[in-house]
């Protein structure tokens, strides 16, 4: 049995229960919480365990489809459809779907920024193939950092690595290309120019990459686990981009 205090979790925190005998017309709560629980049958005691597990997988897929196609479109637009109603919703499946949907929409912004960087790299290096290769190396650092990060899965914040590594990695490319152009005034042979470029550009980029990665690694001191994971992941991505 539930006590009377359990019902207060369905109202706003500032709601004060009226005295007994108070007219309903005098009560005006600002919010009302509702909890929905779903029970799905996956078998009975006589059904084999393997069949029950198969039914669980199938019913879970149906439930996820129900949340994505039926529930989410309604609750996400409810605040727009009704003038005096604001709907806040939360749940494992619906939260995951909303995050995925948001990330896919934000991916369009990432494509736009990557396209701009590619065009600027092309303008700066005067070589389209070199620009594509540089971007490929930059984005290779992200899966390398993911593999090196000692966690089973990363957080949603790790999606920002696409934007951050595009800028940080491009800076390394600009430094190396500038030193390569300057090497023609210092050295004559191709091998000597390469050695001079790696020595001077590598030393400059090593300093900037180390300071940037250390600033991300500083998040390891945070009490929040997602922030620690993000700091470790981004620090490894920065150093991977420099090494690659």
TrEMBL record:
Sequence similarity: Belongs to the dispatched family.
Keywords: Glycoprotein, Membrane, Transmembrane, Transmembrane helix
Domain of life of the source: Eukaryota
Organism per entry: Noctiluca scintillans
Bilayer topology: Multi-pass membrane protein
GO molecular-function term, one example from the UniProt record: transmembrane transporter activity
GO cellular component: membrane
Protein name as catalogued: SSD domain-containing protein
Residue span, SSD domain: 163-244
Pfam families from the UniProt entry: Sterol-sensing
């Amino acid at each position: 049995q539930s006590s009377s205090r359990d019902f207060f979790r369905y109202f706003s925190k500032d709601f004060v229960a009226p005295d007994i005998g108070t007219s309903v017309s005098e009560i005006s709560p600002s919010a009302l919480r509702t909890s929905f629980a779903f029970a799905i049958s996956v078998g009975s005691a006589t059904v084999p365990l393997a069949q029950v597990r198969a039914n669980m997988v199938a019913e879970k897929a149906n439930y996820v489809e129900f949340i994505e196609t039926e529930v989410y479109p309604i609750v996400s637009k409810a605040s727009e459809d009704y003038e005096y109603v604001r709907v806040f919703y939360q749940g494992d499946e619906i939260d995951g779907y909303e995050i995925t949907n948001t990330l896919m929409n934000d991916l369009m912004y990432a494509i736009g920024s990557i396209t701009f960087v590619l065009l600027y790299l092309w303008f700066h290096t005067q070589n389209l193939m070199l620009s594509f290769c540089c971007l490929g190396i930059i984005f290779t650092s992200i899966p390398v950092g993911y593999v090196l990060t000692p966690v089973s899965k990363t957080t949603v914040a790790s999606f920002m690595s696409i934007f951050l590594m595009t800028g940080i990695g491009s800076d390394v490319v600009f430094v190396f290309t500038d030193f390569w152009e300057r090497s023609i005034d210092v050295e004559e042979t191709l091998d000597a120019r390469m050695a001079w470029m790696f020595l001077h550009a590598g030393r400059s980029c090593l300093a900037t990459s180390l300071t940037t990665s250390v600033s991300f690694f500083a998040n390891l001191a945070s009490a929040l686990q997602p922030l620690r994971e993000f700091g470790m992941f981004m620090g490894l991505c920065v150093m991977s981009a420099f090494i690659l």
